[in-house]
Amino acid sequence: MKIPNITEKQMQKLKASSPEAKSANLVADNIEQLKALFPELITEGLINGKPGVTVNVDVLKALVGDQTATDADEKYGLNWHGKRRARQLALTPSTGTLRPCPDESADWDTTQNLMIEGDNLEVLKLLQKSYAGKVKLIYIDPPYNTGKDFVYPDNFQDNIQNYLSLTGQLEGGNKITSNTETSGRFHTDWLNMMYPRLKIARNLLTEDGVIFVSINQGEIDNIKLILNEIFGEENFVNIFSWVRTRTPAALSQKTKNIVEYVICYERSSNNRPLLGIEKPALSANTLLNQPNAIGTLEFPAGIETGISDGSLKPGAFGSDSYPVELLDAVDVFNGKFCSPFRLQARFRWSQEYLLNQMASGTKIRIATERLLPSYEKDSYGREALPNLIDEKVKVGTNESAGVELEVLMGARIFDYPKPVSLLQYLVNSCTTGDDIVLDFFAGSGTTGHAVMAQNVEDGGSRRYILVQLPEALALHKKEQENAARYCANLGKPLTLAELTKERLRKVMALLREKSLMPACDLGFRVFRLDESNVRAWMPHSDHLEQSLFDHEMHLLDGRTDLDIFCELLLKLGLQPSLPIEVKAVAGGKLYGAGGGVLAACLWPEVRSADVEGIAASVVDWCQALSPIVAATCVFRDDAFSDDVAKVNMTSILEQSNIRACSI
């Protein structure tokens, strides 16, 4: 390979301030979208005394009318103290990362499922580049506003440090606050916690994606108003009432709440995301004299049929043909003639009665003019979800869920978990194939359990992403005692996230034993939220020289090559669930993912004499993988012995259309 002159190429360095080193900048993305639609809106101006891009409000008013563009307080909607700050919090990029934990994972090398331990606000920001527009279903069961301990005190300035302190990973940890009903900020605190998380989560949904939020009556009115604002009132689907208990009320109670609610919104009302639920199977004999009964009739060979899809008219086969008595029917054959065939529809006749009529010589004609508009061909055999979720649709209660979890875990841990059947019902209603399901209040991991169970049941390849705060569990608190003792017996940290992981392991073992599908993905990769591997420039005015020396080694101590590579995946927009390939070459290892889209050579030392050999290995590997876009290869910036080695590496790789960067 030709080694070019040193002045030819310069290697780009990824710094803490580089766009690639941060999570998605939602403000910049919004400005770009406005600029594409209305270029005249965007102008250059001063922001806090510094040059920057601004939106010209006067031009906005001219475009939409002065009366339309307003910031008046008197407007319809939900307002509370801190709403503006909550909106800003959603737009602030994260400088954190997700550190891989292979030893805590199951099937690390092959699984596509993720279990992420961390503050869900920061994790949602970090997932923006990799998963924007790719999640089909979001389900969350957020902490109800009960007046007990409140564990999400967000910090606008540095939420990563706030999270590390809160979870005891830094000295002087924050104290968990209480949000009592006597507090004047009772609803405000809860809304300030929920708003930015829902705002960011919407960006992750596919165009035909949906979100389900479990909630009790305490905040249902407020959550509907903020979901109206974030998703649009036109995208409201329904409020489902789930019968959570069958235990009778005590005589001392005035009333008893036996339902909780699951509120549903879709990303766009232009799509029809809900597949619905499978129609109940009825025997043929129940169909006779059952108006609107759903069933299947079998028509043997030789029958004269005329299936109308609008192009054929009833009576096309003559007046001696008599119609089956239909209320409605579905054309499952797209108007083609099929004989013999099965037809599922709403019949008044049973199979026995049909065969008797045919045996007596009666000619039968099938005429289906009124197709049922609520059915689509890819969801044939399903019907719309009822807004009551109870045992009629085979969904359990809190009590049955408690027993189910106790049997699985071998001990009583929680009193009121959600039943797997409820989550599986929701997952089955709107996902298929390899759809992604996200739960960023994962709790004990019921959503992950439901996704794996549904895949085993129908052969799907759905993937889940669970996010759970490592919320501390205390032995001295009655409601946490069982869970804390369970963790202690396992020799694990006393946190809720540890229970999430343990449940997933139990489910994996249970389903693997029962499943007839050995290829079904029942594993999960564990990641943990932490500070970025790239040290931010934070000079100390009293020790500037030492600050400069410290920043020379700009990668944090104790971080592994896998830590750095997984951060590169996130920050460059690749999914952390991608298979990671490792190739041993002379002197070290090469990391790769995305079919050669990203490679990394994170050796601590690269000498000038090593450049050609390393470059050849990178080029050969990337070309063998045939990436669909130009590959990027990342090196440690401080690994190169001198600038000549760095520039020569850059030039050689770029001759093969491989972008070289350093970190």
Task: Name the features.
single chain; 663 residues; alpha/beta; Rossmann fold; 10-stranded mixed sheet; 18 helices; globular; disordered N terminus
Tell me the layout of helices and strands.
Elements: E1 12-13, H1 26-37, E2 42-47, E3 50-55, H2 57-64, H3 83-91, E4 96-100, E5 114-117, H4 120-126, H5 128-131, E6 135-140, E7 149-150, H6 159-166, E8 177-178, H7 186-204, E9 205-215, H8 220-231, E10 236-243, E11 259-266, E12 277-278, E13 293-299, E14 322-323, E15 326-329, E16 341-347, H9 351-359, E17 364-365, E18 382-383, E19 388-389, H10 398-409, H11 420-430, E20 436-439, H12 446-458, E21 463-468, H13 481-490, H14 496-514, E22 525-531, H15 544-552, H16 561-571, E23 580-585, E24 588-593, E25 598-601, H17 611-625, E26 631-635, H18 643-655, E27 658-662
Parallel strand pairs: 1-27, 5-21, 5-22, 6-9, 6-20, 10-19, 14-17, 20-21, 25-26, 26-27
Antiparallel strand pairs: 2-3, 4-22, 7-8, 9-11, 10-11, 12-18, 13-16, 15-16, 23-24, 24-25
Helix pairs in contact: 3-7, 4-7, 7-8, 11-12, 12-14, 17-18
